[in-house]
Amino acid sequence: MKRTSFLRFIAVLMISAVLYCLIGCGIGSSDNSRSSKSDESQNEPQTGITRLNFVPAIGHYKVNTRQHYCFYIDTVQYWYKYRGRVSFMVDENYDYSLLNSQSAMDFIKEVEAIPDGTTEADGPFALKIDMEYRDPDGTTHPVKKSVYGALPENWGTIVRLANELTMQKMDIPVSRKITVVDSNYLRKYHHIQEDSYPQDISLDTIIKELGITYEYLYDETLCFQDDHLDVWTLIDVYTFDYLGMKDYIFFETTQVEKTTDGEMKEYAENHLEYITSINDVSAVGRFQDSSFEIVRSDCFEKWRKDNGVDLVLSYDDSISLIIYGNESGSDETQSYRSFQCYIDPSHKYLIILPFKTGFAGHNVNNYNVVYDFFQQ
Known about the structure:
- The chain has helices at about 1-45, 80-85, 100-110, 155-165, 185-190, 205-210, 215-220, 220-225, 230-240, 260-270, 300-305, 365-375, and strands spanning about 50-55, 70-75, 125-135, 140-150, 275-280, 280-285, 290-295, 310-315, 320-325, 335-345, 350-355, 355, 365.
- By secondary structure, it is α+β, with helices and mostly antiparallel strands.
C-alpha cells in the first residue's frame, strides 16, 4: 500500500514537471515573439524631419538677451558649410528623436497647410519655413513657405509644435505682430546713423533697394554665408558706390604726381575749415568736425616712416593705414589706430583721416564727409 502511494506521488511530480516545461516554453516563446516584434518595430524606417529652418518675424534685436526666435536643425548637413553644426543646440543635448515624434508629424502637416502665393506686394516679410522630411521608403520631400503681410491662420499651432521640437528652449511667443524692418528699426536696433548713407536719399529707400528684411538680418542659414554682408557693411558698400568713391581710392599701383609745399599749403587753405599745423610735407586741420591730414603724394613714404605708419592692403589692393601703439605688448593687447586713405583726383595729395568706431566695433567710413571735401 505504501509502495502504491509512493508511485502515485512520483507520477504527479513528473506530470507537474512536464506541464511546467510546456507552459514555461509557451510563455518564453510568447515573450521572445513580443521582443522580436518590438525590435522590428523600432528598426522600421519612420517619417521624420531631416532639416528645418524657422524664421518668424516676431522679435527684435536685444543686446545680451535672445535676439530673435529664428532657429535651424540640420541632420543632413544641408547648411553645414555655413554653420558647422547639425543643430542650433550648441550644448549638443538635443533629442533628435523629436524629429520622428508625433509633434514632428503634426508640424509637417501644419506647414504644408500654409497657403502659397503671398508676395512682398501683400506686405512685409512675416515668416519663412524651409524644411525637408523623409518618408519610410526614403523619399525626401522639400517644403518651403515664405509668407508676407500676415502670419498664417494656424500660427498658434505652429508655434506650439515648434516649441515642442526645440525642447521648449526657444520659448517662441504666440504673437501675430510682425516686426517690420524700416528706417526706424535700423536706427534703433542696429544704430544706423544719418552719416552712414548718402544724404540725398532716404534710409527707407535704401532698405527697399537692398532688400533688407527681417529674413536678411536674422536667418542663421544666410548670415554665415561668405557672401552675406552684415547690414553695416551692406549700407557702407551702397554708399561707396552711390557717391562714386572709387575715384578717390588710393591703390598700391596708383601713380602719384609731384607738387611743392607752397601748392600743398594753398590746397589745404582751400579745403580745410582751419589748419592746426603745417610743414613742407603735410597739413593737419578740420573739416565738418572731422580731423584731416593732407600729405603730398610724392612725400608719402617719408611721411609714413616719420610717423611710424604701416600699410594695410585690402583684397582689391586699396590702401588703408595703421599705427601701432605699445610695440612691447602682445598681439592680443597691442593697441593701434587705423586710418582711411584717399587721393585727390589730381594725384598730388593724399587725404588721411581716422576711422571712427561704430556699433559693435565696426569701422565707420564716413564717405559723406570725404565726398564733400573733394567737391569743394
